[in-house]
Amino acid sequence: MSDTLLVSTRKGLFTVLRKRGAWAISAVDFLGDNISVTLADERDGRRYAALDHGHFGVKLHRSTATGWEEITAPTYPPKPEGYEETDMWGRPLDWSTARIWALESGGADEPGVIWCGTLPGGLFRSSDHGQSWEMMRALWDHPKRKQWSGGGADLPGLHSICVDPRNSQRVWVAVSTGGIWFTEDGGASWTQRGEGMRAEYAPPESTHDPVAQDVHRLVQCPAAPQRMWVQHHNGIFVSSDEGRTFTEVTDVEPSSFGFAVVVHPREPDTAWFIPEIKDEKRIPREGKLVVTRTRDGGKSFDILTNGLPQSHAYDVVYRHALALDLDGNGLAFGSTTGGLWVSEDQGESWVCVTHTLPPVYAVQFV
Amino acid sequence: MAKVVFTPNIQRHVLCPNAEAPGRTVREVLENIFLENSQARSYVLDDQSGLRKHMTIFLDGRMIRDRARLGDTVTETSTIYVLQALSGG
User: Fold this and answer.
1) Would the pTM count as exceeding 0.90?
2) Assembly ipTM
């Protein structure tokens, strides 16, 4: 299994290594800075780190042979003269990168292609390892984009990007809140996906509207791309037809609410989640931090607790903070209260690496 | 030429020494400085070339209000301070 983890936190990027069977922090980059998400591109070994400097804006850095270099961050196009657009609060919507929330590699056949999702909803593509960026205008200019709204943030955020391993021109993205969108021409045109998802908290006429769905995280099984899993604000949903339709997975204990989901790379019926009390409290039920796992496509779930705190644990795990390695055995997750746990046996047992990190935003195996 | 002073906190990310530059407005002065220091531009201005949300500029001791166009008039003896706004923490 992988022996390296990148942990993006509110106060730096931590590299965690497995040495002689034990996991430990080995390096810290950008100490003190807010790292919203990181990408380790397995095609060429390059790493990308998205920073949010607050006052000074969002920046993007790329690894070099000796460290890091700042590269151009995606920027929104000039807003047309006289064009008015307001956000869900009625305030003018700034066409400006407020956060980088997703970084994903393109397909194996397109080296150098990187996808980037942002707040307030813009999707960008680079074909030169992040040196320059092109906004996907067809998605940004889609009339329904104006129906997107904030989910957990003031602004809509594009957080999940799935590139079809069979055809790199086919890409799915998910927005909180704006549902799932699909292109089969590399981003030139987009259609809404996600029939069957349900937002029970929405007014009746929009409960099943695909654009009203608050998808917290969308993942796709690499070996069976027709299988997609969604952790939704309203629960867990699974698709067997490339996201065209979803079925709600119900009766999940201790809860079907959460942010993160990962799917096994070769077994489409196997997925992991980290449940919390929905949705106004957002803490583990009864203070017990657990991971749930299904091996049968959502018909049943194991509640995995071995090595996880089972008393007064109030860890929340954000959508990018649960990771699975390429062989499907190693799992890791980090929490808002600075905990980091690793499992080497598909979640049967867990080891706490540390519980004193800054709030964790994202975890990735390298 | 107007004098421009950048917050010390920006120096950790991108070197912005105090500078003098010509210009009739805050915009013109800053853009002249960014011609020589292009990396600094995105630290001060947003995607639409307006002043970043949690940045502020004082011109001769007065906080500017034209954050989008930066159209305040600058004189030969003006001093421009580019600072973080307290709204940003």
Assistant:
1) yes
2) 0.91
